[in-house]
Amino acid sequence: MKLVTADKLDALHGRRLKPEDTFHFRCHSEIACFNRCCRNLKLNLYPYDVLRIKNRLDITSETFIDDYVDIVLRKGEFFPEVLLRMAEEEQKSCPFLSPDGCSIYTDRPDTCRTFPVEQGALYNRGTGQTTPVFLFRPPDFCRGPEENTLWTAAKWAKDQETESYQRMTRRWADIRRMLESDPWGRQGPEGSSAKMTFMAVFNIDRFRQFIFESSFLKRYKVKPALQKKIRRNDEALLLFGFEWIRLALWQRPTKNIRLKK
Predict the structure, then answer these.
(1) DSSP for residue 85
(2) At a CB cut-off of 8 Å and minimum separation 6, what does 80 contact?
(3) What pLDDT score was predicted for residue 257?
(4) Of 66, 70, 118, 158, which residue is 20 to 30 A from 43 by alpha carbon distance?
(5) Is 220 strand, coil or helix?
(6) In this structure, are strands 15-16 and 150-151 parallel, antiparallel, or unpaired?
(7) DSSP-derived secondary structure for 118-172
(8) Which residues contact 192 (CB under 8 A, 6 or more apart)?
(9) DSSP 8-state class, residue 255
């Protein structure tokens, strides 16, 4: 998901889709470019992507990060990108690509799920609010737009079952935007606060351990019912992590987490 302001919207590559706008697209195994879009990718993973895939593989989030992810902190930025590591072969294929297509298809990442539509968040500096933006931007080699099936952005999103992904990605995008301004102070992006923030959203198995096996619950007030829920439900835990980051970094009030007096 790209974060954009109104003055930069027209510079984005692709055709912006208004609610009534339509596009043609269909992908299937008989199409000439089948699986080509799954190679040589710079594929950003969002927190919910990691959650879904690590559960699909039945491994911990830490194992997934170690085995499938490259963490890249770019110059001038304060929080790293999490990129899916491509296979070490000439075509640099997605590690989940099989001859029949995606081997984790029902749990594929948000970016793959919405392809060839890309979702962005239009940020209004005056109100502090974001609204979704949809761009139709298939790569030049893609033959899918030559098919006859007609879609709107909303119909495509429903067909690809993106609701939970987009809901979680929008929540993450709000935090990611706030992380574009240095929240770390003297600690810097390699300090303990940055590492804790990364853990809360990308290494949620470790975050769960931190909540229940450290002094966390002695410092923060969390209702027993919510404690029970986040012990067993990863999605609830991720949402809890989003709230905790807002409170811990920017002292934003939250209904579910309060500092004990």
Answers:
(1) P
(2) 71, 72, 73, 74, 189, 198
(3) 95
(4) 158
(5) strand
(6) unpaired
(7) EEEEEE-TTT--EEEEEEE---TT--GGGSS-EE-HHHHHHHTT-HHHHHHHHHH
(8) none
(9) S
Q: How far apart are CA 87 and CA 85, in angstroms?
A: 7
Measured between alpha carbons, how far is 223 from 31 in angstroms, rounded to an integer? Answer: 53
User: What is the C-alpha to C-alpha distance for residues 33 and 36, in angstroms, rounded to an integer?
Assistant: 5
Lookup: tokens for 37: 């879009």
Q: How far apart are CA 239 and CA 252, in angstroms?
A: 15
**Domain range list for the chain:** 2-160, 185-252
Letter for the amino acid at 245?
I
pTM: 0.92
Asked whether 41 and 86 are in contact (CB, 8 A), the reply is yes
CB 169 within 8 A of CB 1: yes
Please check whether residue 202 is in contact with residue 83, taking contact to mean a CB–CB distance below 8 angstroms.
no
Helix, coil or strand: residue 83: strand
pLDDT in tens, 102-135: 999 999 999 999 999 998 877 777 777 778 889 9
pLDDT tens per residue across span 189-246: 999 999 999 999 999 999 999 999 999 999 999 999 999 999 999 999 999 999 999 9
What pLDDT sits at residue 35? 93
Structure tokens at 131: 């609204």
Amino acid at 200: A
The C-alpha angle with vertex 14 and arms to 179 and 40, in degrees rounded to 5, equals 75
Tokens of 241: 């992590």
CA distances from 33 to 30, 92, 117, 159 (A): 9, 16, 17, 21
Token pair 């939970």 in the structure block, residue: 164
